[in-house]
Amino acid sequence: MPDSRWQDKRVFITGCTGLLGSWLTMALVDQGADVTGLVRDDVPKSNLNRTGFLGRINIVRGELQDYLLLERSLNEYEIEVVFHLGAQTIVSIANANPLSTFESNIRGTWNMLEACRRVPYVHAVVLASSDKAYGTHDALPYDETAPLRGEHPYDVSKSCADLIARSYFVTYRLPVCVTRCGNLYGGGDLNFNRIVPGTIRSIFREQRPIIRSDGTFIRDYFYVKDCVQAYLFLAEKMLADRSIHGEAFNFSNELQVPVLELVKKIIELMRRPDLAPLVLNEVKGEIRHQYLSARKAREMLGWKPLYSLEQGLAETIGWYREFFGTRA
Fold first, then answer.
1. Residue 32 pLDDT exceeds 70
2. What pLDDT was estimated at residue 289?
3. Looking at per-residue confidence, does 212 or 265 come out higher?
4. Which of these, 98, 129, 146, 164, could form a disulfide with 153 (CB 3.0-4.6 Å)?
5. First and final CA of the chain: distance in angstroms?
């Protein structure tokens, strides 16, 4: 039976064909929600296409930069809950092409929030930010009181989006909350320059995994199914308790993992110790150490993660084993 909390709830998701968006869309459809997704590009191998879920939602074709399209969509589908996930999320692409990143991540955010402000049906907006919004700080882990001071293009775009969201709450009392997560991983991620799917693909292809940094960078790795659960949990809280509107929440399993250690864990799980990682040490314009405290989410929301790192990686490897059609 569908979850009664989401049964017939009218939900709008930007970035619905991405890693997080696809899993969130599938979860909401399974729970009986009436989902409308904003889709810019057709990606035949995307999770939603492969699972058939793309045919089970309403599709709006267009871009976040098209304000009138967003307002029309929210009005015509009488949207109640918005998950704004759509963004340019690859740091290297942001460094190479900052203007398109700013257009998507900053203009796209103010367009989405302004459309939500002008549509009376919207009761909750969950805006996806990132730990990158904090920029570089000596004091770790980051908690939600840390200043937002991104310096590189992607980080700046997230800092700006966070501040814009806060302004819409303070000025207009828009029912918005911001989520800040670490590096998401899981099945369905087709951006193979990211460390998790890239490592898994290399091993399935009998190649040594590549680490672009020196391997010592520390990151917060968060399994996509835990992230979906966190987003749904937060939205449900927002609908029930207006006192949390305007807040930002870190979601994390609170593990600090160096890149090299993560790659070695994947190699171990895939039983290929012969494929030692190739460390290039060529990355530039990235923060060396970032990890989050989820204390606020635990104490204010009563949230906790469900998956360990090893469980999440094992499920992810299984997804790509099927995707690549290998029995390895």
1. yes
2. 86
3. 265
4. 98
5. 36
Chain mean pLDDT for the chain: 94
Q: Which CATH number is 71's domain given?
A: 3.40.50.720
Nearby residues of 108 by Cβ (< 8 Å), 6 or more positions away: 14, 63, 64, 65, 86, 87
Query: Whole-structure pTM over 0.85, yes or no?
Result: yes
pLDDT band at 89 (very low <50, low <70, confident <90, very high): confident
> Which residues constitute the domain of residue 36?
10-189+220-255+289-306
Domain count, the chain: 1
Q: How many CA atoms lie within 13 A of 241 on its CB side?
A: 11
Q: Which of 77, 154, 185, 291 is catalytic?
A: 154
Question: Would 91 be classed as within a structural domain?
Answer: yes
User: Which tokens belong to 294?
Assistant: 């989820």
Annotation says 154 is catalytic: yes
Pairwise CA distance, residues 167 & 22, whole Å? 29
Residue 118 lies in a domain: yes
The two structure tokens encoding residue 246? 């305007």
In a domain, 327, yes or no: no
- Is residue 313 domain-resident? no
The better pLDDT of the pair 12, 285 is held by: 12
